[in-house]
Automatic annotation (TrEMBL):
Keywords: Membrane, Transmembrane, Transmembrane helix. It comes from the Archaea. It comes from Thermococcus profundus. This is Uncharacterized protein. The keyword Membrane applies. The chain crosses the membrane at residues 12-34, 40-59.
Length: 84
């Protein structure tokens, strides 16, 4: 079996397996981080994790939207490509 036939037959399964391993590793690392925070800090860890989640989903989103709007206003030329 040559390499192209091997990749055609098993390539997507290998890539899917690697992607699943990366995702599993990410969630395992996140879970260990949360577990260590609870073990080390106790109840304060819940407040820290909740505060970080609120910041990530509410504040950071608005900051990124405002940055994108400002860049669009100053760096986008609506007349680009049009003949004068």
């Amino acid at each position: 079996m040559d390499f192209s036939l091997f990749m055609e037959r098993y390539g997507y399964k290998i890539l899917l397996g690697l992607f699943a391993l990366v995702l599993l590793g990410f969630f395992a690392f996140l879970g260990l981080w949360v577990y260590s925070m609870f073990k080390f800090f106790g109840g304060i860890a819940a407040v820290v994790i909740l505060g970080y989640a609120i910041h990530a989903f509410l504040v950071q989103r608005r900051v990124l939207d405002a940055t994108a709007e400002a860049h669009g206003k100053y760096f986008y030329d609506p007349n680009y490509g049009k003949k004068r």
